Amino acid sequence: MTHHHDTTHIDWNEMGALLERGAEIQSPLYRQAAAWLGELLPPVGVRRILDIGSGPGVHTALFAEAFPYAEVVAVDATPELLDQARARAERAGFGDRFHTRHAELPDGIGELGEADLIWAGNSLHHIGDQRAALGGFARLLRPGGLLALAEGGLPARHLPRDIGIGRPGLETRLDAVTSEWFTRMRAELPGAKDEVEDWRALQAAVGLTPSGTRTFLLDLPAPVPSGVRDHLVAAFSWQRKMLDGQLADDDAAVLDRLLDPDDPASLFRRPDAYLLTSRTVHTARRG
To answer: How do residues 220-261 score in pLDDT, each as one tens digit?
Structure first.
């Protein structure tokens, strides 16, 4: 294993294009989630939505479509991502219903204002004290309002177990190293506290009433379209950089081959690349 300086810092601005393309590809999954939330919380009664950790605003725009009477607010700590969100809203013609809010969380939670629906999509785990953050979200909810956490699901899969180069099971080993990286990332967050990731129990602990959990699937079989293939290349490139020095040498070498456009076995040329993933949404209501 090659050793390099290990860091868990994420440059969200640098990741802007990757985040936006990934969210666009996964839009069918999140559209299903938004439709389900519309069953739990009829759109006619939803006047304000907060999208916590909105990134480039792809999901915020989906909520604006699903809840046509609501003001939607993209909340993020990276100004460049909020610029992307505003540009998307302008292209979609949402007008005065779409707003952005720059906020450093958890300190800025109390300044976000009340909401009927709060969506935290894969963002809570970037806050050190998750229980305290959930308590802050709960206090923002209007009576009858809903908190929806997208946390967990299944690790994404993109390649067969045996890809013909290297040891079989590459993605399983990448998952294990990524899990270790994630644990270090969580431990290095300001105010980090360990929590059992029982999201229903945590929602109940801050005074909310759990109201249902569902998992939504995205299945894009091989051969994937060129836009999805480009995203897979970008995602594997980011993972290669993020895990540099933490991978076994042979796995690092296989990743390098997968990312080499001149290699016949690369992601650029493979007919067996696909995208299969899921996201789990945990909801709870304020009484």
So the answer is: 999 999 999 999 999 999 999 999 999 999 999 999 999 999
Classify domain 16-285 by CATH architecture. 3-Layer(aba) Sandwich (3.40)
What backbone phi and psi angles, to 5 degrees, belong to 272? -100, 5
pLDDT one-digit tens code per residue, 178-209: 999 999 999 999 999 999 999 999 999 999 99
**Domain locations along the chain:** 16-285
DSSP string for residues in 57-89: SHHHHHHHHHSTTSEEEEEES-HHHHHHHHHHH
Residue 193 to residue 128: CA distance in whole angstroms? 6
Which run of H or E residues covers position 187?
A: helix 170-187
Q: What are phi and psi of 229, to 5 degrees?
A: -60, -45
The percent of the chain in helix, strand and coil, each rounded to the nearest 5, is 45, 20, 35
